[in-house]
Amino acid sequence: MNTLVRKSVLDVKPYVPGKPIEETKRQLGLKEVIKLASNENPFGPSPKAVEAMKKSLAGVNRYPDAQGYYLKKRLARHFGLLAENFLLGNGSDEIIDILIKTFVETDENIVTSDTTFLEYEIIAQVNSRKVKKAPLRYFKYDLGAMLKLVDKKTKLVFIANPNNPTGTYVTKYEVADFLKALPGQAIVVFDEAYNTFIDVDDYPDSLDYLRRKNKVVILRTFSKAYGLAGLRLGYAIADPQLISYMERVRQPFNVNILAQAAGLAAIDDKDFLKKTRRMTLEGKDFIYRELSKMGLGYVPSAANFILIDVEKDSREVFKSMLKFGVIVREMSQYGLKNFIRLTIGSQKENRRAISALRKVLTPRA
Ligand SMILES: Cc1ncc(COP(=O)(O)O)c(C=O)c1O
User: Fold this and answer.
1) Helical (H) or strand (E) element with 133
2) Which of 40, 66, 222, 275 is the 20 to 30 Å CA partner of 347?
3) Which residues, judged by CB distance below 6 Å to any ligand atom, belong to the binding site of ligand 1?
C-alpha cells in the first residue's frame, strides 16, 4: 500500500492529541477523570456562547454564512479594524494550512523554532513544504538564530507567542529587531492562541505592526480563553489584500453555524474572560508554589499551562498520573523526555493534579 501514498505523507509523524476523558474512564475503569492536557478552558464554554448556539440550532438545516459576515463585522469593531482584515477558520489549525497553501511554493521554505506547536511542521510536511527550525535558547524562541535560517526562499515565519509547549514569550524589543532585519518577501505569523493570559508589560503589540504595514499575520483562537475548543473557531488578522488571497484557498463553508453564533456572543462575554484570566493566574501561582515545595523545576509560563521537569521518563509519569484519574501531556513527542505539560485547571483540579504528581514522584518508603 505504501506505493499509493505521497512520500511526504509517508514521512509524517501524526499529531498526538491529549488523551480524551471518556477513553481514559473506559480503559482504566475510573469514574472521575480530569483532563489537564490540551490547554482548554476548565470553566466550560462562555455562557453567552451557549445561549447563542441554542438559538441558532434550529437553523442547521441550512449551510452556514460562507462569508462569516456578522462575526467578521463584530471582530472588526472589537479591534477597530475592517471586516476585510479577518479570515475565519475551523480552528487556527486550519488557518495554518491555508497560510502555507496560499503563500509557500513547493521550492520555498518556512522558518520556525524547535519545540514549538507541532502543527506548523506537520501541515508543512503534508503540503510538501520545507521547514527550517532554530533551537530554543533557555526554553525560549531564539529570534536571532531564526533570522540566520531565513533566506531568499523563506515565505513564512511562524512565531508562537507565547510558545506551546514552553509557555515562554518573545518580547516587543526582540520582535522589533527581528522585523527590522527580515527580508521583504517573508511574512511573519504571530500565533497568539494564549495572548489572553499575558500578564507582562513587554509583550509585543502585533496589531501595531499590522497598522505600520509590516507583512504580519496574527492568529487568534476561541479554543482557549473563550472555552470553545470543541467548536473549532479561529481567525487570522492581516492586511486585506493578504486576507483576500487566503480567502481563495479556504473551503466555502469552513466555519459552521454554531461556531459563528458562539463566536459572536463570546467576544462580548467580558465577565467570563475576566474570570477565566483571574482564576488561571491564581491557579498558576498555586501550582508554582506547590512545585517549588516539591523541589521540581518548571518553566515560568505566560500561558495557561506549565512545562514541568519531572526528572524521569515523562511517559511513565503520564501513565502513573492516569491511574489517579489525571490526564497530563507527556512531552516525548516534543523531544522533552523528562517533562510533562500541565494545563492550569480549576482550583479543585489543580489540587488534585498536584496531589497525584506528589504521589507519583514520591517513592513509597
Ligand atoms: C500555539 C497554538 N496555536 C494554535 C493552536 C490551535 O488552536 P485551534 O484550536 O484554534 O486550532 C494551538 C492549540 O493547542 C496552539 O497551542
Assistant:
1) strand 130-134
2) 222
3) 39, 91-93, 117, 160, 164, 191, 193, 221, 223, 229, 234
CA-to-CA distance for 75 and 83, rounded, in angstroms? 7
Which pLDDT score is estimated for 365?
47
Q: Are 122 and 14 in contact (CB under 8 A)?
A: yes
pTM of the predicted protein model: 0.96
Mean pLDDT over residues 119-138, rounded?
97
pLDDT digits (tens, 9 = 90+) for 64-80: 999 999 999 999 999 99
Alpha carbon dihedral 144, 145, 147, 148, in 10-degree steps, equals 130
- CA 294 – ligand 1 centroid, Å: 30
Strand, coil or helix: what is 199? coil
Cell of 342: 500541565
296 burial via Cβ count (<10 Å: 0-12, 13-18, 19+): middle
Q: Choose which residue among 93, 116, 196, 233 to substitute to test ligand 1 binding: the one with the highest number of ligand atoms within 8 A of its C-beta.
A: 93
| CATH number attached to the domain at 2-44+271-361 | 3.90.1150.10
Ligand 1: centre distance to CA 104 (Å): 21
Half-sphere exposure of 154 (CA within 13 A, CB side): 22
The CATH architecture annotation of domain 47-269 reads 3-Layer(aba) Sandwich (3.40)
How far apart (Å, rounded) are the C-alpha atoms in residues 286 and 120?
A: 32
Q: Domain locations in the chain?
A: 2-44+271-361, 47-269
**pLDDT-derived band of residue 99, with 50, 70 and 90 as boundaries?**
very high
Question: Tens digit of pLDDT for each residue in 143-192?
Answer: 999 999 999 999 999 999 999 999 999 999 999 999 999 998 999 999 99
Q: Where are the beta strands (DSSP E) in 168-285?
A: 187-191, 216-221, 234-237
* Mean of pLDDT values over 126-137: 97
Q: Is 214 exposed, middle or buried (0-12, 13-18, 19+ CB in 10 A)?
A: middle
Helix (DSSP H) and strand (DSSP E) numbers for the chain: 14, 13
Which one, of 107, 95, 87, lies nearest residue 151 by Cα?
107
